[in-house]
Amino acid sequence: MSSIKDLNLASKGAEEINWAARQMQVLEEISNEFALSKPLDGLNIGACMHVTKETANLMMTLKTAGAKVALCASNPLSTNDSVAAYLAENDIEVHAIRGVSNDEFFKHLNLVLDTNPDITMDDGADLVTLLHTDRSDISVLGSMEETTTGVIRLKSMEKNDKLRFPVVAVNDSDTKHLFDNRFGTGQSSMDGVVRATDMLIAGLNVVVFGFGDCGKGVAERAYGMGAKVTVVEPDSVRALEALMHGYEVKNSLEASKIADVIITVTGNKHVLDTQHFDVMKSGVVLANAGHFDVEINLVELKNQSSEVNRVRDHVESYMYKDKEVLVLGEGRLVNLTVATGHPASVMDMSFANQALAAEWIKENYKNLESKVYTLPKSVDQKIAATKLKLMGGQLEILSDDQLNYLDSWEFGTS
Ligand SMILES: NC(=O)c1ccc[n+]([C@@H]2O[C@H](COP(=O)([O-])OP(=O)(O)OC[C@H]3O[C@@H](n4cnc5c(N)ncnc54)[C@H](O)[C@@H]3O)[C@@H](O)[C@H]2O)c1
Predict the structure, then answer these.
(1) Are residues 17 and 63 part of one domain?
(2) Which residues of the chain, if any, have pLDDT below 70?
């Protein structure tokens, strides 16, 4: 029995899911193969993912593969209630309602685990964490992880010998993080900032905290919209890379002084704190695109503000000392809370990886250890080749002579 907002929203959900499906043809090809081979027949899959139209296509693919699927949300503000309704109407057990309380959110996670999943799928390691704490009575064959922050947690568990089962770091597939994190987060985060504020980005000082895959994407898209981009980054190689891209590179305090808009995307906590709020300009806009809502220290911002008002949808105004600080989407992933998340075309590759990872765990679990695995490179090559072809690109085929040359050590200066 699902917990959703309203089953009557299912037809609206169908429209959205079909729209996304048009741009998810790699996943469609996998789904067509799964319809014949049924690789997940008889398995229970428990997923904790953002409940979006793209995720819905992945859930339907897993169902096509023969799995029984239960889904909860990986963020209380990212659920599309229409999508949840459609899935519930189509034999997926869904526990997700946009805007639920924290208690309800964790109840939903537990309801998914009540289905005794054979394989779990996380975006932020919430199910895996429960499987190592309150629900350690449940045994799974393996799990999949979608995002950087989740993978960092899992690698720490592996290092400390705490991991109880194998996990596939889907995030670490090249066809995931080089595209989803960069092009997906880049476009959809700027989309979130624009939808929330209706501001003209051209000419603004946009500061990006973190120059990993996601930060690169956000900086590129902000720059493309005419912003003067400044990057804050503690890793010297990445900071230098940002500088040579043509961005200003400053420390967090200097960057905070000049910012009109700040987007955090670090996976770290309190990267914006009171010392930064103190030096910001009045009217500065803060948004977070990192996984958890801890990148901006909202607790201190609230404690030290005389007033907090919602001034329009998704925008909260904090009267902090003598200035106004505007926070978008309650400091949660701005691309999912304000906009609709990554475009389907890029999720196509991420979710092709997820679908193939489920099959890979089913085929290999007997030989796997309690470690964090990456999918074989051949999977990346297959997904990339299919996507390239679908998008009209042509791959260069090397001759045997060229392959031989690249493989050999005998040839040198002639
Ligand atoms: N919004 C989305 O839809 C979405 C999509 C994918 C990943 N994510 C999340 O975004 C975050 C970043 O992901 P990524 O793949 O770019 O990770 P990454 O590890 O490649 O990059 C993070 C960067 O932040 C830097 N950093 C750490 N602390 C910092 C600080 N205090 N100030 C400035 N920079 C700091 C690191 O040095 C690193 O270069 C993670 O939490 C990830 O889970 C979000």
Answers:
(1) yes
(2) 414
